[in-house]
Amino acid sequence: METESEPYVRLATLRQLHHVVADLNTARSLADTLQTVADGIVAGLNYELACVNLVRPDGDLVVAAFAGSPAAEALITGRVGSRASWERRLSMGVAWGDLRFIPHTEGWVLIEDDVPQWHTEGPAPRFEDEWHPHDRLYAPMYSSGSGQELLGVISVDRPRNGRHPGPWGQEALQMYASQSAIAISNARLRANMQRALVRLEREQQALRASEESFRQAFEYAPSGMAIAEMGGDQHGRLLRTNDALCRLLGRPASVMRRYSFADLVHPEDIGLLLRTSAEGGRAELRLGRRDGTYVWVSLRNSVVADTADGPRFLLTHVEDIEERKRHELQLAHRASHDALTGLPNSAELRSRLSARLCERPHAATEADYDTPYGHGHEHGFGFDAGPGAAGGPYDHHVHTVAPAGGEIDDGTKGLAVLFCDLDGFKSINDRFGHHTGDAVLIEVARRLTTGVRDGDTVARLGGDEFVVLADGLGAADAADLAVRLRNAIIPPIRVDGRAVRVGASFGIGWAECGMSVEEVLNSADQRMYIEKRSRAKVHRRAG
User: Fold this and answer.
1) pTM, to two decimals
2) pLDDT digits (tens, 9 = 90+) for 252-303
3) Given 39, 269, 464, 525, which residue is catalytic?
4) What element of type H or E holds 523?
5) Is 464 a catalytic residue?
6) What does DSSP say about strands 414-423 and 503-511: parallel, antiparallel, or unpaired?
7) What's the burial of 452, exposed, middle or buried (CB within 10 Å: 0-12/13-18/19+)?
């Protein structure tokens, strides 16, 4: 069962992984890229040591980068291990997807081979999944495309938590190795392209040979490449595209010449594309295929200039990152949603609620927020608590307000927080088992979702507790919504041929700037318990 802290850990790890993967594409040379790969393992994936073994032209692997221990780095950097020894290692142990784990019980036979060795010191394991000093974990890096050429192997040693990585850690390391292979391939490609461009600019006498070298690198690059016009009436129009880009987008080269990237990009990504095209640089965005679908790509622009005439054209490298984006979205969804019902979980609920609240002091006045450009309210700045609070002087924050207390609706519309606790759910679990209980929770989640508006949030807080966030409601609106949702839950729920019933108690709270998330949820929770006790008294009197 997933603990309450695991979604936070996953989200934090996903953010770290996103940052270190982004860093892979900022290195300027192959050597910088290799060192960035090693540093990312230690900084982002929480291993104590990392070594990048790069395949040389002769097939053997050389230690090209190391991170985590200056002493070990000085000892083995530049040393070479034979291809035969490496192939033996990658055929041993346990396969974790593309990863290869060799436990210390098998690894002792490798002590005498010619692969550079190192290990961290430490005590023998005390439990089954604890990391042993002689355990080995390898992440092979393969080139993209059908050939699957081995580019190198990442070796890691001792996770900082002292345990063997679980499924999430294995998937993160495998994803990182895949992105590292792309970054290494790109670094080599950029080096080749840069050499070709230098020859074009500096060696006029060797122009034909340089153009042919460029053509080969362009046409046969494993990822998409394009050349676009700069300046003039046809600025941005695609002059030339390679076969990889045409295949990726499902469009022939003759058709591609009718477009610019601005014609192909997803409407939501057009601003990002224009900024990247104007300045040169890198962006992750979506491009349209011929069949109307979109594919996520990493797009890198380089302005190719002539020293006399200025910018000549834009060279664009397009890498398919659809699989990585899909993994990221799946991981983010799993971390922020309840596995049983598919509803936003407790962490996501708190995040959405927090986004609507600022730390506005209750005693603040408009005079406290005058700016050099006039009165703060006139500029949509809002009256918030200093530079660290949400809704600061450059954030157009609209304060969340709450209707006045009591039964009378004063006309104020606010963000209602409905705390729902199921009545009788425990007895269903006890009588019919958790399978029936899970089916009831799934159906209650469906009924709650059906009963709210588009844009409202239905979240599962945990157990049989749900929370609904509904914006733009008055006091009477919120009360009516609670009645409708309760009536939607009451009808029988059929599970495995039997009908079961649960009731529901609702407490209505209101979110308001100046309150914390916990204060908002506790307020709704307390009102729910008040309602539950009140209804219990009514039932006792009726009995």
Assistant:
1) 0.43
2) 988 898 888 889 999 988 888 877 765 567 888 899 999 999 999 988 888 7
3) 464
4) helix 517-542
5) yes
6) antiparallel
7) middle
